[in-house]
Amino acid sequence: MKELIMVGSGGHSKVVNETIAREGNYAVKAVVDDKFEEVVMRNGRLYMPLMTAASLLQLFPEARWIIAVGSNEARRRLKERLPVPQTKYAVIIDPAAVVSPSAVIGFGTVVFANAVIQASAKIGEHVIINTSSIIEHDAFVGSYAHISPQAVLTGAATVLEGAHIGANASIIPGKTVGQWSIIGAGSTVIRSIPGYITAAGSPAQRIHKGGKEIEEHTG
Q1: With 169 labelled, which of 3, 39, 51, 107 sits at a CA distance of 20 to 30 A?
Q2: Adjacent-strand bridge partners of 111
Q3: Calpha distance 38→11 (Å, rounded)
Q4: How many CA atoms lie within 13 A of 172 on its CB side?
Q5: pLDDT value at position 209?
Q6: Residues 18, 64: one domain?
Q7: What Pfam families does the annotation carry (predicted)?
Q8: Sheet order of strands, 140-141 included
Q9: Cα separation of 119 and 130, whole Å?
Q10: Are 98 and 187 found together in one domain?
Q11: Structural domain of residue 98, as residue ranges?
C-alpha cells in the first residue's frame, strides 16, 4: 500500500479520509494543518503544523499527497505554498464512482461515491467531484473547481478554474461557467456565465459581482 500525506483536517477531510480507506490504495502516514501547534503521533499517524510539511518530503520521499480542503481558494493557496511537485499528488476515486476509461483526471483530484464521469470528459487538478454528481461526455472541469453533490454537467458543458457548482445545479450542453464563479444550489444554467460572479435560479441569473476573489485574481 502506498504512503499518503493528507493536507487539511476539517470536515471535508473526513470524507476524503473515508474515501481513501474504501479505495484501498493508500495508507495515510501524516496529516498536515495550520491548526496543529506541534508534531504528535496518534494511531500510527503524524499530525504536523503546515510549516513543517517540507520535512515530510525527506521522511516519506515516495509518498503521494492530497489537499483535503473544501474551499477552492484555499486549495489553490495551499498548492502554491507547499513545496510538493505536482506529479506527487494522488488521484483519489471512490470504488463506488463510475469513471470512463477515456476520461482524463488531473493530479490532486478527488471523486466521491456514486459520482459518474462519462466518456472523454476532462477534469483538471485539485478538483472535487462530489457525491452523486454527474460529468457527462466531453465536459470539461478546470483546476480547483468543486462540483457539489448531485450537480450535473451535461454533454460538452465547461466549468472553468475555481468555479463552484452548487448541489443539484445543472448546466445544459455546451454552456460555460467562468472562472471562480459560483452557481447556487438547484440552479439551471441555460446561458453561459462569465467569471467572478455568483448566479442562481432557474434559469440562473447573476445576483452578485465583485468582492474578495475578484480583487485577488484580477488585482
Answers
A1: 107
A2: 93, 129
A3: 21
A4: 9
A5: 72
A6: yes
A7: PglD_N (PF17836)
A8: 104-105, 122-123, 140-141, 158-159, 176-177
A9: 18
A10: yes
A11: 92-218
